[in-house]
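Backbones bend. Our protein:
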Amino acid sequence: MDNFFDNSRILKTVWKWKFHIGIAVFIAIIVSAIISGPAFITPKFKSTARIYPANISEVSEESTSEHLLEYLQSTDLRFKLINNFKLYDVYDIKPEGKFYKAYILDEYRRHVEYKKTNFETVEISVLDKDPVRARDMVDSLIVFVNDAIHREKAKINYELANAAKKELSVKSAEIDSIEALIDNIREETGLIDYFAQAVTATRGLMDAAAMKGDDDPARETLSHLTTKGTDLRRNLELLVDSEIKADTLRKRYEKYYNRAANKISYSKIVEHPFVADKKAHPIRWLIVFLATLGTGIISIITVLLIDYIREVKSTL
């Protein structure tokens, strides 16, 4: 067996069978060139885009680009693209078939690819026999992922807006109640401003005493201040505090409602897709090269075995 791996014997055998090996290699070149042609393998074109996540906050340890990938890989988004471009017809898979979803998603994975780059962008690639459709599919995926993220964000923002609206409604009712109490006190007592009227009544009482004038109005005001003044002051302070809180809730409601209602972009296109003018699949030269290399190696091994077996038989 050691003789089988002898370099000189291998070279002699290859030289001896060179024409046979050459013919096999030549046939492999011709056959692989024909098989890799459009008659046997449908040419496919690739369209690619790179997008950068925008207006997306990080979730736990997941980066914004990974968050974007999660949306792109969702089954809902995949079927939306499949249905919009009728990919079941493109891939010749019947929707009423028993394993339709499994087959169509398998073909989808073969033709649509997402990956995160080293620069935190997300690359979207689509392979299709129609270069225009490939470009349009990439464009649609960018639109679909923006819509998907917006729907989720809008749902959350609407919930926050509604929560703020409910709190604002409660706070507005509280303000109305406080204002009603203040109005009642003012109607009963004529008090408007606790501190201003306390100063005025005290000065009036002192002036009346000094000038021996009528101090009844001042005493009446001070009496009202004593009995109802504290309630008035407390309710006025409570009204101011409630109005500040109501204003904060109103701003919060407007903020979340505007975020939900206004559609913003969640991806910045770094590289726009375009219609490819050169096929990406199959790589014809690679198929021919591998077929030629494989045929050459198999041919050499075959002739070495044939020659070795003949030598062994001749020695028996």
